[in-house]
Amino acid sequence: MSGERNWDYRFCWIRDAAFTLDAFFNIGCPHEADAFFWWLLHASQLTHPRLQVLYRLDGGADVAEESLGLSGYRGSRPVRIGNEAHEQRQLDIYGDYLQTAWLYQRAGGRIDADTGRRLAETADLVCRSWREPDSGIWEVRSARAHFTHSKMMCWVALDRAARLAGTEHIPSEHLAHWRTEAVAVRDFVEHRCWSERMRSYVRFAESEELDASLLLAAVMGYGDAREQRLTSTIEAIRHELGNGPLLYRYSGEDGLGGQEGSFVCCSFWLVEAMARGGHTEKATALMDELVGLANDVGLYAEEIEPETGAFLGNLPQGLVHLALISAATAIAEAQQ
User: Fold this and answer.
1) d(CA 148, CA 322)
2) What is the spatial distance between Cα 2 and Cα 164, in angstroms, rounded to a whole number?
3) Whole-structure pTM value
4) Burial of 309 by CB count in 10 Å (0-12 exposed, 13-18 middle, 19+ buried)?
5) Fewer Cβ atoms within 10 A, N terminus or C terminus of the chain?
6) Phi, psi (degrees; rounded to nearest 5) at 11
7) What is the pLDDT of residues 184-199, one digit of tens each?
């Protein structure tokens, strides 16, 4: 059927990089992790210190979007090539980028002096940019806003930069400034992105909407998943956005017409958040349900229609399978 929400995903997203590197290490593929890290550094050098949301698989940055005069699969128009999202400001990707570097260093990878300088300059850019509104993780086509997840990931960026500087992997001249700005980011989130009425962090500052990306606060270490605010946020998201074992991405408008199914990666993020929050049995039970939703060869689409179980969107989608690996790893760690 026709719809507005058809996009070209044949690219590498910066935010997927942190999940990919972590997955490679978790499943025992250090050589692949090393190769991927340096591919990412090569691609991002083209736009340094600004990060582009996505890059071509050859590392290029030109991904202009256009519609083709084709009918598409089962009449799914429009058929697009390229992706306009590359022009968006998505501040969360700076947290993903520095998280990737931190994971690489923690696993024993060597960060040379030039790379360290570039990473430090990225942290400096976060200090200058985090107060700006952005388009958020879901690449909405509505007006920019102060998305909570984006602010949380700016805090992650500055925290990881400080850790890398503390181990002398990147220059530490601006370390004190990074720490000061990290405190300011957290103050913004805790005072402007929390709803007492909903007992939850909200989709963007001063809103009353929820967003499943807030589960990544527990996954990425913005806070301890056992803390009261994160615990109640996890429960609110499951209650408000859940449909059986599945979750919708967010409530509220996004500037696009039509509807979508549940977003499968969000359910695996919920599994991981519950496991890291000490609810191992609930996380394992949900994981078992989700595993049963895979197709006959164990793959998942981007979305699932909860009422019918129909696969929607891209098949297979990398982000879903990366979230599965991370969730399974979190359960295994919790059980130990």
Assistant:
1) 23
2) 48
3) 0.90
4) exposed
5) C
6) -140, 175
7) 999 999 999 999 999 9
